[in-house]
């Protein structure tokens, strides 16, 4: 088994999309992230796992500067996307967030129609000149969100009327509509039941053909199922980062082994 | 009990792809092993050293595929935590690949012995039985692989029953070789090798039977009740070659 | 005397509690397993005594006066009240009562003195009787509840039933209140309508309740048309909303999304102070500062400004409503889940876009409900207009003119001594009825909106 | 897949540019919204500032009162000991005062009356009370400090401009001169106006105080609290925790919400018709006022209580129920204690509203002119807000500043109550 | 593998604790439970699994009559605990709930001290005469809840100050304090992270020595890990009920197979 | 790479108990198989038919245990979704039990042939080599089971190397028997059986080696790099028995 060649895993290792160097994050005086270095590949699903409070969400939210909205949060280090520093003064977080989409733990569709939910991003960013263009973007995004078939007959029904799993896929379609390059997901399935979870996981797998996906998850099983790369955080440190199959069959660090086999007491 | 196999795809289609991929390796192995059996028996009949060498060489590929099956199976177990039918699929795949690997080994061993036999005088009228036996086993293998693909427990059961014939053929051959050896001491060395070859083919049949049992387990969730048919009675064969 | 009854009641209740508690405790230490805790056995007795006896005492107090009076009047020498109308009889009774209380004015007739004596004795007798009744009743109830104590007795259920009954009674008070409002308004209004025709009241364009009414003229035709009063109310309401809605909404938006924490920490309580200022103060403010200011400015630019402008009253009312609307809107905005805000920001919306396109529309129903309630408040608001608006009903849309409102009319018609038999007084009730109906419709509508909206995010 | 991603990379450049192009416009819009918000808040602040400022400016002077100190000889002739409490206290005072003025003819009744207008009308009663309490003073000289009348008070507080032409002024030059004599003699003082709190109402601004109103308000609030608090809580608990959810409870709920929004004047009409008209309860009495206010406050308390009960997470109820607590045990052991801070906050705020409520009290006659504080809730009384209303309506100039002062007193109470409520809320605020 | 003999599984099949016969539950007009028959064994962990809305919670809450508190809920059929009908008129639901303890999805300690949390049940049921007795009950319950060592030094600290997993174990200790015979748990770990979940699962395994445990869970993995018997519900029907190992390796019903292998779409 | 084996218990201790239980079966199997090897070799030397029959009978127990290991392993996989070291443990256990079962089978086969051999004339000087070989394999098995328990990769590697010696012994025996057969045709039948017995023992060694490789994988997460030592050259043995 020394030949750990993956099937169905088209990882392209020389294509780094996001690169974090010597990153530290503080909330007031407490340090939530300690000297994390990580390279996230394009067209890959990267999962962040680790015990509660280890800093997964914090690190994820650094990548689209959602942490800016928290007063006491301070970020140190370099975050490069496509080689450009996203914390550079010249970068407007609004613009960054159009490029780095995000999907949240609880499905949060706007209380508007399905169409408007998806059209909102492109509209504010002025991505469509005509109604026809907008229609096209909406359809394409809903297709990418694997929900087009379920909603195409009721585009003008409210998005909040969908089931939990459908709502989450709608939120993914909404995030995708602004043509981001990176999709961040913070425990996107923790509010869903197993069936909806499986559907969203399937969708995530499809999305990686077009996006760089980073997903935070509490469920090791989920990380195992959806990701090609896994990062294990512990107490703010990045303990291990590697190919998911490797992490789950032969992790290098004893803390990783302890965590994934259910031994950290 | 056919109901056990739900043919719907998984919601996570990537899981289906993983399962298919690992089963594809099995099919590939199966093909290679069939070829090996045929090749080995042909090489034996024709005392074709070149072909025998090829069979020996190809075994490395089968071994590599077995490794790959194990790796992928472990991976699927670690990443997908399969249950019920899926779990049985993975477990079965591992067992089947082990069986195929062993069959491959036996074919390789035939190839090795063919090389030796080529340099010895032929023992009359022996090769036909061996070829028939090899053919029977190869057909059994083909059928059991079909049974696996189509999740056909009946066909697998049929294969399982056919092993009896192979065993009977082996018994006949054992006695025949014993006779040859007693007749003419010059036959002793080649007959020893032929003997081993026959034993190899008989073992191949056993491994195919084992695959058939795996297929039955995969489809029904249970192993066949009766003991596996075992008609190799040569261990009890007396001086005269009869049990 | 009556306070003594309460003391007896209190003692009896405590006694009942401890008796039952001890009895239950005794059973328990005997090894039996009680269905209910000892405390519940005690409380059962306590409530069994407290509730009925308390009701008896209250009823007794409420009725004692009239029963005693009735008996006293019955005891008067025959013929003394013959031929006297109701009012005169009441006067005699009042005199006897004050005699009984020891207030002697002039020299009353001896039969009155005797009646007064009679009154005092009766009163005392009844008071003593009350004590006796309280003692007996309490004792009986204590006995009954004490007898019920046993291991299997479901004292907890008993207590809970009584408490439930009490709580149901409490809930009914709200209904009684509404019934009271409607009954009183309907009753007095119907009296009014027997004097003034309904059509006149509803569609008349002239409101002059002050014209003297001769004895032979039951109602002055055309004097009780509520339309101009209503229009005045609406004018002032509109002015108030024009001030309050934009200012209130914008402050809510600012506070909710943009204000630094320090600003929010100061502004919220300040707005609460503004909301807590009584309307009479706003009225005084309108009279003292705003009206003169408007008048001075209006005249300075050559406008004809009356002293009691609708603008002053409405404007001040608007100021009063600012915190009302802003806090409603702020609540509605805060009720929109944070996740929506994050969702919009993560799409790359600016904060203004997040607010205007997502949060605000999501909060619209709540805000609309709030604004409607503000309308209802403006219509019903009394003190500001009583102090700052005019008394003359006028049909005008000019905010610099003086108008009157429904509430102003109610208050002015009823201030001072009034009897309930002239249309002037009764007109106030008719106006009250209209006011109640209009605000009722608005309220029910607004509350329904607000409630529906709350259900979305709960 | 490949063609989609190719398409995707094609869009990348453009969408980024498109976003960047729109940014300045969007940021401008954001600043605009922010500016409007600041303006709105500013306006509200400004109004509050003007409101309080104008009250303080007009009201602060009412917190002092000009007094004059006189040595009064109590002439036994004018005040015969056997006729007490009657007697010519006024004359005694007049002579004591006029002794300081050279220009007044003691014999001219009109001139004397004009001169004694300096003294408050209440001065004679103050003297009388002193003498009645101690008849030994008759025949002696008493040093008496009494309020000056309102006009002179205004003069002393510079509210009457000495530069206005005499005919436009309330006081003539001679009157001002006489006052100045007293002032120069050091007889005029301006101490803290304790009378504002300790006196009952009066027709004379210099004597008018809030005692009656404060006591009246106290009784009314007490009655209001005693009735509305238990009823409100009981009702809220029943509706929130026990009532089956059906048409009836729905109706009660709508009804309560509506009651909270019924104009206060309608409650006044209710009280007038039902309590006074039908039940024959006394007019102007705090008991009636309190009951009326109770009916008005009850919905507020019910709504606040229900909100507080609702805020207790259902998990707590389930937890208690799960260990076998009965529904009432659940409520009274767990939910109610947790909701108590919220309930108290709501109650205090409700009472604060009741304290400031005016219109219904006007209708039940709690704006009567009553010169003594009530001893029980059954006696006629005024309340703080109605007192303000009365004073605001009074023509005397002195009442303007007293109205402001009374408002400041009222606001002080309200702010205290609200502060307590806010304190409670912050102290016990719970994050579930 | 026809010899499915379990190791470490001391199931005592002839000891039925709870028995439900022909049970139907309605919410107004909609039927949530359809003719369910099930026998739950003593000293066994029984798991209820099934897709969202299939009626697991509804059925669970029938067992301690928590459904009584829902106005529109109607229960038909017989529920026997130790052979006695719990819907009999003579049964006081309050007493029933002391006997059938319940643990909820979100840890819900009372906002009181740890001690008071545990002592509350025994107090209202009059289970302790003296403070010493109460102390003893509290200690025993906390020990059974496997949390005594963590809290013994701060019994009077508020229960809400504990971590999620500790809170849930406190809630279990609280449920155990009234000496119930049955413990019902409705998704007791769904609000916990994997480590706390593992701790609670371990505790559940220990509890079955003394109680009959019935657990509703969304996570098939969890059912697999903690239970000896599994019941699969689908659309209000009990589709399959059997030994957990059997269900997860060779389920009898195709719907069960579809669900546990992630195929119901 | 020792770090891979975390010795802390699982939070869910029942998981530890499950893993231990399934490994306990392995140990039991190992014991039984060792006994079977010893018993078979003893029965052979002594031509003790009774002992041979016992060995044959005991194999059923070994087979049952293998079934049990498979059942339990499938159960653990289905119920506990093990990962990393735990997963390797389960997979290893399945492989090892399969190997042990095969070794048991070979012992049983020896037992069968012993029964036949008892009724034939002894072939001089042959049994000693077989016994030594069997002893060597039994020791290897013991050591590899120790290595498994103590997770000792070095010891496993040592066992793996020792298989070479067994193979050399087999080569020697092969030639010896050939000589005997050529010398005296009466030896042919018993030597055929002895031949097969030797082959059986050689195969046992191979299976022990395979177990050793599993142990190495379990501990290190990787299979040993070099090919497994294979010194059975008899397939190439010429007429004179030399390769
Ligand atoms: N807004 C905040 N203010 C202060 N501290 C914070 C804040 N958000 C997170 N933290 C702290 O930072 C650390 C990391 O938090 P983070 O939310 O990133 O953890 P996490 O790994 O996502 O945990 P979880 O799995 O529970 O979501 C924690 O210790 C947390 O207490
Ligand atoms: N209070 C209620 N009123 C009306 N219908 C209800 C109520 N509670 C549950 N239901 C309905 O009954 C059915 C079963 O609900 P239940 O909560 O038992 O499902 P569940 O299996 O526990 O689902 P989940 O896994 O989502 O908790 C659902 O269709 C649900 O909509
Ligand atoms: Mg997180
Ligand atoms: Mg549920
Ligand atoms: O390879 P086998 O050991 O089964 O002959």
Task: Name the features.
heterohexamer; A: 265 residues; alpha/beta; Rossmann fold; 6-stranded mixed β-sheet; 4-stranded antiparallel β-sheet; 10 helices; disordered N terminus; B: 243 residues; mainly alpha; Methane Monooxygenase Hydroxylase, Chain G, domain 1; 77% helix; 0% strand; elongated; disordered C terminus; binds adenosine-5'-triphosphate; binds magnesium ion; binds phosphate ion
Describe the structure in your own words.
The complex is a heterohexamer, with two copies of chain A (265 residues), two copies of chain B (243 residues), one copy of chain C (458 residues) and one copy of chain D (432 residues). Chain A has one domain (12-260): 3-Layer(aba) Sandwich (Rossmann fold), CATH 3.40.50.300. Helices cover 34% and strands 25% of the residues of chain A. Chain A is built from ten helices and ten strands. In chain A, the strands form two sheets. In chain A, strands 6-7-8-3-9-10 form a six-stranded mixed beta sheet, sandwiched between helices. In chain A, strand 1 (16-27) and strand 2 form a beta hairpin. The two termini of chain A are 31 Å apart. Chain C is an all-alpha fold. Helices cover 77% and strands 0% of the residues of chain C. Chain C has helices at residues 2-29, 38-74, 86-100, 110-148, 155-195, 198-203, 227-258, 261-276, 279-300, 310-335, 338-346, 351-380, 383-388, 406-414, 423-457. In chain C, helix 2 packs parallel to helix 5 (155-195) and helix 10 crosses helix 12 (351-380). Mean pLDDT of chain C is 87; it is low at 217-222. Chain D is built from 16 helices and three strands. Chain D has helices at residues 2-59, 89-98, 109-116, 123-133, 150-156, 173-184, 195-198, 211-242, 247-261, 264-278, 286-311, 314-322, 327-356, 359-363, 384-393, 398-428; strands spanning 67-73, 141-147, 188-189. In chain D, strands 2-1-3 form a three-stranded antiparallel beta sheet. The two termini of chain D are 47 Å apart. At the C-D interface, helix 5, helix 7, helix 8, helix 9 and helix 10 of C face helix 1, helix 8, helix 9, helix 10 and helix 11 of D. The complex binds adenosine-5'-triphosphate (2 copies), magnesium ion (MG) (2 copies) and phosphate ion (PO4).
CATH architectural arrangement of the largest domain in chain D: Orthogonal Bundle
Count every helix of chain D, treating DSSP H or I runs of 4 or more residues as helices: 16
Query: Spans of chain D of 5+ residues with little confidence (pLDDT < 50)?
Result: 1-13
The poorly predicted ranges of chain C are: 217-222
CATH superfamily of the largest domain in chain D: MetI-like
Q: Roughly how many Å is the radius of gyration of chain D?
A: 32 Å
Largest beta sheet: strand ordering of chain D: 2-1-3
The top level CATH class name of the largest domain in chain D: Mainly Alpha
Largest sheet of chain C: none
Biggest chain-to-chain interface with counts:
C-D, 93 and 90 residues
**Helix fraction of chain D?**
55-70%
Q: Decide which structural class fits the backbone of chain C.
A: mainly alpha
Say how many strands of chain C there are: 0
Instruction: Return the domain count of chain C.
Output: 2
Query: Rounded to an integer, what's the Rg of chain C over CA atoms?
Result: 31 Å
Give the total of domains of chain D.
3
């Amino acid at each position: 088994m020394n030949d750990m060649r993956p099937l169905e895993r088209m990882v392209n290792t020389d294509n780094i999309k996001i690169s974090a160097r010597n990153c530290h994050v503080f909330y007031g005086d407490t340090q939530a992230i300690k000297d994390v270095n990580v390279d996230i590949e394009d067209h890959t699903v990267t999962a962040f796992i680790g015990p509660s409070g280890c800093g997964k969400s914090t690190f994820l939210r650094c990548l689209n500067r959602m942490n800016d909205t928290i007063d006491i949060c301070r970020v140190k280090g370099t975050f490069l996307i496509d080689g450009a520093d996203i914390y550079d003064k010249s970068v407007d977080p609004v613009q960054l967030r159009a490029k780095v989409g995000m999907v949240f733990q609880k499905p949060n569709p706007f209380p508007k129609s399905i169409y408007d939910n998806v059209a909102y991003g492109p509209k504010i960013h002025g991505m469509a000149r005509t109604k026809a263009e907008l229609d096209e973007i909406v359809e394409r995004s809903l297709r990418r969100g694997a929900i087009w078939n379920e909603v195409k007959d009721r585009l003008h029904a409210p998005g909040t009327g969908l089931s939990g799993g459908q709502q989450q896929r709608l939120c993914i379609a909404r995030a995708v509509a602004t043509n981001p390059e990176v999709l961040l997901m913070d425990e996107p399935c923790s509010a869903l039941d197993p069936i909806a979870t499986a559907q969203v996981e399937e969708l995530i797998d499809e999305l990686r053909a077009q996006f760089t996906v980073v997903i935070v998850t509490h469920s090791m099983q989920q990380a195992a199922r959806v990701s090609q790369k896994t990062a294990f955080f512990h107490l703010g440190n990045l303990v291990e980062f590697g190919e998911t199959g490797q992490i789950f069959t032969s992790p290098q660090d004893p803390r990783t082994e302890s965590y994934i086999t259910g031994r950290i007491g | 009990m056919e109901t056990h196999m739900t043919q719907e795809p998984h919601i996570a289609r990537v899981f289906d792809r993983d399962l298919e991929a690992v089963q594809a390796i099995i099919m590939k192995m199966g093909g290679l092993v069939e070829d090996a059996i045929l090749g080995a028996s042909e090489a034996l009949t024709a005392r074709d050293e070149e072909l025998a060498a090829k069979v020996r060489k190809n075994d490395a590929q089968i071994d590599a595929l077995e490794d790959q099956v194990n790796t992928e199976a472990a991976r699927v177990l670690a990443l997908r935590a399969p249950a019920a039918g899926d779990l049985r699929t993975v477990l079965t795949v591992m067992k089947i690949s082990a069986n195929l690997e062993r069959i491959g080994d036996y074919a390789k061993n035939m190839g090795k012995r063919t090389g030796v036999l080529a340099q010895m005088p032929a023992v009359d009228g022996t090769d036909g039985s061996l070829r028939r036996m090899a053919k029977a086993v190869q057909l059994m293998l083909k059928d059991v692989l079909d049974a696996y693909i189509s999740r056909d427990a009946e066909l697998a059961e049929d294969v399982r029953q056919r092993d009896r014939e192979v065993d009977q053929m082996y018994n006949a051959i054992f006695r025949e070789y014993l006779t040859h050896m007693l007749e003419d001491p010059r036959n002793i060395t080649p007959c020893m090798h032929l003997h081993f070859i026959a034993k190899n083919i008989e073992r191949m049949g056993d491994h195919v039977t084992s695959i058939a049992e795996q297929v039955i387990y995969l489809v029904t969730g249970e192993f066949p009740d009766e003991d596996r048919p075992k008609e190799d009675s040569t261990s009890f064969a007396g001086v005269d070659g009869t049990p | 005397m009556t306070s003594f009854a309460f003391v007896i009641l209190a003692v009896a209740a405590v006694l009942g509690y401890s008796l039952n508690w001890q009895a239950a405790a005794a059973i328990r230490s005997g090894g039996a397993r009680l269905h209910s805790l000892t405390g519940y056995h005690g409380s059962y007795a306590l409530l069994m005594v407290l509730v009925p006896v308390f009701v008896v005492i209250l009823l007794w107090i409420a009725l004692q006066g009239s029963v005693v009076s009735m008996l006293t009047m019955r005891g008067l020498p025959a013929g003394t009240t013959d031929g006297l109308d109701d009012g005169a009889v009441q006067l005699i009774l009042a005199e006897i009562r004050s005699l009984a209380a020891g207030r002697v004015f002039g020299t009353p007739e001896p039969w009155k003195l005797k009646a007064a004596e009679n009154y005092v004795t009766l009163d005392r007798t009844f008071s003593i009787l009350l004590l006796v009744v309280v003692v007996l009743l309490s004792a009986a109830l204590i006995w009954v509840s004490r007898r019920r104590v046993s291991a299997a007795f479901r004292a907890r259920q008993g207590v809970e039933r009584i408490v439930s009954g009490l709580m149901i009674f409490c809930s009914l008070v709200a209904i009684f209140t509404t019934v009271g409002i409607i009954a009183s308004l309907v009753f007095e209004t119907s009296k009014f309508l027997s004097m003034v025709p309904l059509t006149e009241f509803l569609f008349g364009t002239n409101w002059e309740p002050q014209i003297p009414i001769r004895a032979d003229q039951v109602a002055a035709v055309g004097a009780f048309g509520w339309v101009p009063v209503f229009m005045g109310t609406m004018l002032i309401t509109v002015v108030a909303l024009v001030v309050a809605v934009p200012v209130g909404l914008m402050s809510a938006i600012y506070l909710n999304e943009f204000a630094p924490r320090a600003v929010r920490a100061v502004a919220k309580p300040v707005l609460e102070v503004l909301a807590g200022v009584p309307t009479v103060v706003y009225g005084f403010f309108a009279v003292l500062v705003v009206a003169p200011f408007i008048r001075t400015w209006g005249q300075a630019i050559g406008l004809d400004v009356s002293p009691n402008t609708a603008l002053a009253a409405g404007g001040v009312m608007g100021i009063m409503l600012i915190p009302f609307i802003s806090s409603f809107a702020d609540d509605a905005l805060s009720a929109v889940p944070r996740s929506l805000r994050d969702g919009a920001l993560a799409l790359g919306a600016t904060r203004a876009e997040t607010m205007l396109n997502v949060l605000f529309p999501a909060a619209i129903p709540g805000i609309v409900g709030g604004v409607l309630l503000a309308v209802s408040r403006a219509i019903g608001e009394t003190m500001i207009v009583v102090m700052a608006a005019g008394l003359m009903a006028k049909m005008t849309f000019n905010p610099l003119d003086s108008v009157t409102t429904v509430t102003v009319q109610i208050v002015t018609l009823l201030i001072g001594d009034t009897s309930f038999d002239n249309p002037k007084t009764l007109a106030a009730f008719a106006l009250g009825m209209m006011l109640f109906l209009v605000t009722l419709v608005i309220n029910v509508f607004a509350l329904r909106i607000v409630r529906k909206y709350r259900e979305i995010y709960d | 897949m490949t063609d989609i991603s190719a398409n995707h990379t094609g869009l990348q450049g453009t969408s980024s540019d498109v976003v960047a192009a729109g940014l300045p416009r969007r940021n401008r819009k954001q600043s605009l919204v922010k500016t409007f918000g600041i303006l709105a808040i500013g306006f509200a602040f400004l109004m509050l500032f003007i409101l309080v400022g104008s009250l303080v400016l007009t009201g602060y002077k009412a917190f002092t009162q000009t007094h004059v100190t006189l040595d009064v000889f109590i002439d036994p002739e004018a005040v015969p000991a056997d006729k007490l409490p009657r007697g010519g206290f006024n004359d005694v005072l007049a002579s004591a005062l006029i002794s300081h003025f050279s220009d007044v003819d003691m014999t001219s009744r009109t001139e004397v009356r004009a001169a004694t207008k300096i003294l408050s009308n209440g001065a004679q009663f103050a003297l009388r009370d002193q003498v009645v309490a101690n008849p030994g003073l008759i025949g002696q000289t008493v040093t008496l400090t009494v309020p000056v009348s309102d006009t002179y008070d205004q003069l002393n507080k510079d509210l009457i401009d000495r530069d206005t032409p005499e005919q436009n002024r309330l006081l003539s030059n001679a009157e001002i001169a006489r006052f100045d004599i007293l002032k120069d003699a050091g007889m005029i003082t301006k101490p803290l106006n304790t009378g504002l709190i300790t006196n009952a109402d009066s027709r004379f601004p210099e004597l008018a105080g809030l005692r009656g109103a404060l006591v009246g308000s106290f009784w009314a609030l007490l009655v209001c609290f005693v009735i509305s608090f238990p009823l409100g809580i009981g009702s809220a608990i029943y509706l929130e925790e026990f009532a089956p959810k059906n048409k009836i409870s729905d109706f009660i709920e709508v009804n309560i919400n509506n009651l909270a929004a019924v104009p206060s004047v309608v409650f006044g009409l209710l009280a007038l018709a039902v309590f006074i008209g039908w039940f024959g309860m006394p007019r102007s009495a705090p008991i009636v006022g309190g009951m009326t206010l109770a009916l008005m406050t009850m919905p507020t308390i019910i709504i606040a209580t229900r909100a507080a009960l609702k805020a207790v997470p259902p998990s707590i109820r389930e937890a208690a129920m799960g260990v076998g607590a009965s529904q009432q045990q659940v409520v009274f052991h767990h939910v109610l204690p947790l909701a108590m801070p919220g309930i108290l906050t709501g109650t205090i705020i409700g009472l604060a509203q009741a304290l400031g409520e005016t219109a219904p009290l006007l209708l039940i006659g709690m704006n009567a002119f009553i010169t003594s504080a009530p001893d029980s809730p059954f006696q006629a009384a005024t309340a703080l807000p109605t007192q303000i209303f009365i004073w605001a309506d009074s023509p005397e100039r002195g009442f303007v500043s007293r109205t402001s002062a009374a408002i400041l007193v009222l606001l002080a109470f309200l702010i205290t109550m609200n502060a307590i409520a806010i304190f409670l809320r912050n102290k016990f605020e719970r994050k579930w």
